[in-house]
Design brief:
The protein is α/β, with parallel strands linked by helices. The protein has a domain at 81-89 and 107-205 and 251-367: P-loop containing nucleotide triphosphate hydrolases (Rossmann fold), CATH 3.40.50.300. 48% of the residues lie in helices and 16% in strands. The protein contains 16 helices and 14 strands. Strands 5-7-4-8-11 form a five-stranded parallel β-sheet, sandwiched between helices. The chain has a three-stranded antiparallel β-sheet with strand order 12-13-14, covered by helices on one side. The longest helix is centred in the N-terminal third of the chain and has 26 residues, at 42-67. Bound molecules: 2-acetamido-2-deoxy-beta-D-glucopyranose (NAG) (5 copies). One 2-acetamido-2-deoxy-beta-D-glucopyranose binds next to loops. One 2-acetamido-2-deoxy-beta-D-glucopyranose binds at residues 210, 213-214, 217, 256-257.
Length: 373
């Protein structure tokens, strides 16, 4: 069955079909000259009916194909993917395998995400997602669905969401979506007024985290935090290129990792500014009370005392994962100067910092906000 999209929600065009069916039929009957019906009897009526059917089929076809392409932003295949198997929410049967004694609003079941953490990877987004889920009115999907970059059905996607009650806010996390315009457009097609959270962090810290993950994936080491010397050594060999016989920083690689501006421009072109919250990681670590308050307000949930503490010297972040459980995690690349200091590579730090300085400035101007990078 064809689907249509309206006001950000999807509905089947089934009802439209019947609506047009009725209207076209009546209109067409009036167009058939009276004498044909009188003089030719049944034969005339049958011909008129057949003609009506042709018109109905054509009108329905053009109407539905018009409705399938609501805006230039969404391609037909995007839309097809997003609407396949869609109903307003996950079907009641799948939602409630449990006790039917309780009404639906008292039975936890998956809800449509109304907020999305879209990036940036390597800026502690997963830690913040855990801390966010401590709020009693927020559920965070921690399972990687890759829905907006993959080809699963919307029904499947929604069924992956954690069970929640109607007044809860469901937040999904996909930290690489922000770097791909196509994925952002699909998010927009899903819900153009969805709330978007973006976490940014010092580009050098992101560079280090990216490098450390790279070393981990090629099997250099299995430990979570790498020794600074190994890290900086590998950066020295991978972040430079030869230009005219001179060793230069690889500008392309560096800006892909640390130039947030280029991605945020895409994001702000697609979503209204008021629906996007940019969170700076260090600010959240240093000033958790006011920063969390801002996040909760943005999500429209009541205040909650998420007591995040961050120990700058050890890089340990502690936060409540629920009202009874507290967790501490090492987040080792926050203090970038320590990494370079330990590796005796302050000159490299200086050149990377010089590379990012103008890019940071441009970002501050664009966001009308100044970070301490
Ligand atoms: C974005 O994602 C699409 C589809 O998943 C892919 O074809 C495209 O190459 C990606 N673009 C970038 C810039 O990574
Ligand atoms: C899309 O789905 C098909 C069939 O389920 C699968 O074979 C294919 O690998 C999927 N492609 C992507 C990009 O996930
Ligand atoms: C889209 O997101 C907004 C903001 O979270 C929410 O209020 C609205 O209900 C969502 N719409 C749908 C169809 O999920
Ligand atoms: C590091 O960043 C680059 C550029 O964004 C990306 O292509 C690469 O996959 C990242 N590496 C890791 C290990 O995350
Ligand atoms: C955070 O965790 C601590 C220790 O488990 C607990 O005493 C405190 O009440 C929690 N805070 C909130 C707001 O739930």
């Amino acid at each position: 069955m064809a689907m249509s999209m309206k006001d950000g929600s999807f509905s089947t065009s089934h009802h439209h079909f019947h609506y047009h069916h009725g209207r076209v039929l009546t209109q067409h009957r009036m167009l058939v000259p009276r004498r044909h019906r009188v003089h030719r009897g049944n034969h005339g009526i049958i011909t008129a009916f057949a003609a009506s059917c042709v018109v109905i089929v054509l009108v329905t076809y053009f109407e539905t194909s018009r409705m399938l392409i609501p805006s230039k932003v969404v391609t037909r295949s995007d839309l097809h993917q997003l609407t396949s198997g869609f109903t307003k929410d996950v079907p009641k049967k799948e939602e409630q395998p449990v006790n039917t004694k309780f009404p639906s609003h008292l039975t936890p079941h998956p809800h449509r995400p109304s907020a999305m953490m879209v990036g940036f990877s390597h800026c502690s987004g997963n830690l913040l997602a855990s801390a966010l889920s401590a709020h009693p009115d927020v559920v965070v999907n921690r399972r990687s669905t890759k829905f907006f970059s993959g080809n699963q059905s919307l029904r499947w996607y929604l069924s992956q969401m954690p069970p929640s009650l109607d007044h809860h806010v469901t937040v999904d996390v996909g930290l690489s979506y922000v770097t791909n315009r196509t994925h952002l457009k699909r998010i927009k097609a899903y819900n153009e007024s969805i709330k978007i959270i973006v976490i940014v962090c010092n580009p050098i810290s992101r560079l280090i985290a990216n490098q450390s993950e790279f070393l981990r994936t090629i099997g250099k080491t299995k430990v979570e935090s790498l020794e600074s010397k190994i890290l900086v050594h590998s950066m020295k060999s991978t972040l430079y290129t030869e230009v005219d016989g001179k060793r230069r920083l690889d500008a392309h690689k560096l800006s892909k990792i640390g130039d947030f501006f280029q991605f945020l421009v895409d994001l702000f072109l697609l979503f209204p500014r008021k629906n996007v919250l940019v969170v700076e990681r260090n600010r959240l670590y240093k000033n958790p009370i006011s920063q969390w308050a801002g996040i909760y307000k943005f999500l429209g949930v009541p205040p909650y005392r998420q007591a995040t503490t961050f120990d700058q010297s050890s890089g340990e972040l502690c936060f409540n994962v629920s009202s009874v459980q507290r967790s501490c995690v090492k987040d080792p690349y926050v203090d970038v100067s320590r990494v370079f200091r330990e590796a005796d590579a302050t000159s490299m730090q200086e050149s990377v910092r010089n590379f990012y300085r103008p890019l940071n400035k441009r970002l501050y101007m664009y966001l009308e906000d100044q970070f301490d990078w």
